[in-house]
């Protein structure tokens, strides 16, 4: 039996990445292990860069320290000892699967070499590129809201298994605008977009994120992909297994 389409007249389609456009497995089996493997060498070559020190400072704060100095014993990362202490904290935060801004910033910087060399090619589900193109041609604006940093999002969509999808995207949001589980973050996104909340439809694999978006007045859709974590109370949101089930441009009942 054909799945029932989800009809929406939303003008802006806001997409999550992990578990929505792309498989959780790619992130956990390829992207995160890349960081664990390459971090020490990355720090060896890049520890003096302002962007790396800025991420390290945020990692220290996100980890409950008052400063970088409290975490690594100095205000910079010039010594091997400081780099090792930072590495230990990064691994601790990754083991805890923190979606913290500093960790995501540093991960994005480490992934850059992987995406540019071709070691990493971002997974997207088969129908995703075609649907994104179709939506864009129909006049919809496509944007990303992910815990992955904006830099990482651009690398990701610029280097997918289906080629460069970045030109299809009109904008990006990450946790610098706020947590994906807080309604206020979606209100800020709507303010940035300069539209009404119900002109935006948010697609995600996580009910807590959709609850927050719905509270802010956005339309929401739960994306069910193989390997996604089981969600509690999913019935609050319409759901789909493929982007092809989203029927755009039709009257919305929201
Ligand atoms: C380019 S995003 C890499 C994956 C990642 O780090 C992440 O946290 C994705 O989380 P999402 O909010 O997209 O579910
Ligand atoms: Mg997700």
TrEMBL record:
Residues 230-242 have a biased composition (Polar residues). Its EC number is 3.1.3.77. The keyword Metal-binding applies. CDD domains: HAD_EP (cd01629). It comes from the Bacteria. Its cofactor is Mg(2+). Residues 230-254 are annotated as: Disordered. Keywords: Amino-acid biosynthesis, Hydrolase, Magnesium, Metal-binding, Methionine biosynthesis. It catalyses: 5-methylsulfanyl-2,3-dioxopentyl phosphate + H2O = 1,2-dihydroxy-5-(methylsulfanyl)pent-1-en-3-one + phosphate. It is an enzyme of class 3 (hydrolase). One of its GO terms (molecular function) is 2-hydroxy-3-keto-5-methylthiopentenyl-1-phosphate phosphatase activity. Pathway: Amino-acid biosynthesis; L-methionine biosynthesis via salvage pathway; L-methionine from S-methyl-5-thio-alpha-D-ribose 1-phosphate: step 3/6; Amino-acid biosynthesis; L-methionine biosynthesis via salvage pathway; L-methionine from S-methyl-5-thio-alpha-D-ribose 1-phosphate: step 4/6. GO terms for biological process: L-methionine salvage from methylthioadenosine. Binds 1 Mg(2+) ion per subunit. The keyword Ribonucleoprotein does not apply. Monomer. Bifunctional enzyme that catalyzes the enolization of 2,3-diketo-5-methylthiopentyl-1-phosphate (DK-MTP-1-P) into the intermediate 2-hydroxy-3-keto-5-methylthiopentenyl-1-phosphate (HK-MTPenyl-1-P), which is then dephosphorylated to form the acireductone 1,2-dihydroxy-3-keto-5-methylthiopentene (DHK-MTPene). Belongs to the HAD-like hydrolase superfamily. MasA/MtnC family. NCBIfam families: enolase-ppase. This is Enolase-phosphatase E1. It comes from Anatilimnocola aggregata.
């Amino acid at each position: 039996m054909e799945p029932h389409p989800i009809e929406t007249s939303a003008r802006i389609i806001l997409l999550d990445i992990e578990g929505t456009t792309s498989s959780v497995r790619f992130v956990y089996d390829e992207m995160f292990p890349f960081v664990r493997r390459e971090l020490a060498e990355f720090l060896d070559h890049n520890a003096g860069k302002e962007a790396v020190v800025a991420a390290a400072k945020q990692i220290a704060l996100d980890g409950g320290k008052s400063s970088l100095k409290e975490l690594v014993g100095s205000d910079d990362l010039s010594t091997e000892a400081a780099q090792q202490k930072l590495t230990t904290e990064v691994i601790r935060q990754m083991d805890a699967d923190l979606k913290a801004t500093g960790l995501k910033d540093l991960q994005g910087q480490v992934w850059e070499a992987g995406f540019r060399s071709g070691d990493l090619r971002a997974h997207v589900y088969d129908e995703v590129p075609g649907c994104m193109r179709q939506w864009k041609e129909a006049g919809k604006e496509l944007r990303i809201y992910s815990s992955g940093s904006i830099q990482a999002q651009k690398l990701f969509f610029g280097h997918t298994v289906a080629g460069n999808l970045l030109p299809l995207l009109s904008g990006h949001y990450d946790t610098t605008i706020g947590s994906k589980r807080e309604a206020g973050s979606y209100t800020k996104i709507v303010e940035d977009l300069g539209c009404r909340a119900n002109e935006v439809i948010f697609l995600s694999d996580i009910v807590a994120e959709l609850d927050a978006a719905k509270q802010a007045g956005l339309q929401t859709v739960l994306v069910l992909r193989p390997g996604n974590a089981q969600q509690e109370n999913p019935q609050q949101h319409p759901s789909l297994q493929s982007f092809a089930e989203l029927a755009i441009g039709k009257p919305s009942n929201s």
